[in-house]
Amino acid sequence: MTTALVTYLQFRSSTREAMEFYHSVFGGDLDIATFDDFGMPVGEGEGGLVMHARLRTARGFLLMASDTPSAMELAPAGGFSLALTGDEEAELRGWFEALGEGGRIEMPVGVPPWGGLYGTLVDRFGVAWMVAVGEAE
């Protein structure tokens, strides 16, 4: 039996757009199911919202997300970032640039005081990302 810690994002109504964007950045297999697909009762016009989305990439990433119907509270999460780390600089820089399109680069990828390369951004969906390349000296 295995156990995993998986990132599960929640949006008000932009999950499909967000997950299709992440799919364009990372590739892999994207599965999307709506509230209507499961016959779940939601507010008028909300049946097409995403009840569950799952992106599995060739690199082994697993990212899940769902929409939060209007009758449910969407508590904004704060104080966290998704971190992409490794030693393949070109790939990590490519993801950073792709995720930053339409978003806000907070710290361009550069050399931080602890060594290696590091950058931060908030993507167009409000998700914070960090990229760290190489080992700190």
From TrEMBL:
Start and end of every Glyoxalase/fosfomycin resistance/dioxygenase domain? 8-131
UniProt xrefs under InterPro entries: Glyas_Bleomycin-R_OHBP_Dase (IPR029068), Glyas_Fos-R_dOase_dom (IPR004360), PhnB-like (IPR028973)
CDD domains, alphabetized: PhnB_like (cd06588)
UniProt-listed SUPFAM superfamilies: Glyoxalase/Bleomycin resistance protein/Dihydroxybiphenyl dioxygenase
Could you say which residues form the signal peptide? none
Superkingdom per UniProt? Bacteria
Q: Name one Pfam family in it.
A: Glyoxalase
The protein, known as: Glyoxalase/fosfomycin resistance/dioxygenase domain-containing protein
